[in-house]
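User: Here's a chain of 219 residues. Predict its fold as tokens.
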Amino acid sequence: MSTASTLTPTQPTPANGVFTHTTLESLRALYPAPKERAVRKQLDHLDVHCQRFIALSPFVVLASSGADGAMDASPRGGVQGFVKAPNAHTLLIPDAPGNHRLDTLENIVASGRLGMLFMIPGVDETLRVNGAAQISTDPALIEQVADERRRPTVVIRVRVEQAYLHCAKAFMRSRLWSAQAQVERSVLPTMGRMISEQTGLAGADETQEQMLARYQADL
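Assistant: Prediction complete.
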């Protein structure tokens, strides 16, 4: 009898000699059920701890998906608290100058959804927030996220649907904030050199220091 004929509906099917799980039942069979604490920690709003975390965070990763399923994860940074939480159900994210690809913004227009991962340097826990997102040019919203350097062209307004603190295990494993885990920038070519080689397009062969100085003028 072949291997495939002995599989039950909840078992994975072999693909190219590797078992690939295509059902929730077969996937869940590999793991224990989540503990009550992990389930109940998910909120539908930003409580005092979530709001404090966001106020201390200078960095967030925005995860989005387009209508065709194309995925994107984009880093955003600023001073502590550059993302504003005017109330327990709303986030305002200023759109700072970038490469003008607009991957995140185009995905939001297409799907209206956004996932966020907030980080605080030196803190191993993170904050995950998911919700419905819109692109706004409302002057009142732009004023709320403007700083001394600039007023953003648009603001991403998020209606919070899920918010929960994520445990420290990933950061502990990676030792992300540890000085001993830091990598010297010189182990990689400059950004300009790497992109020139990837694209075949000639560019200024600037040093890392020159590139940082150029970026500094447009932060």
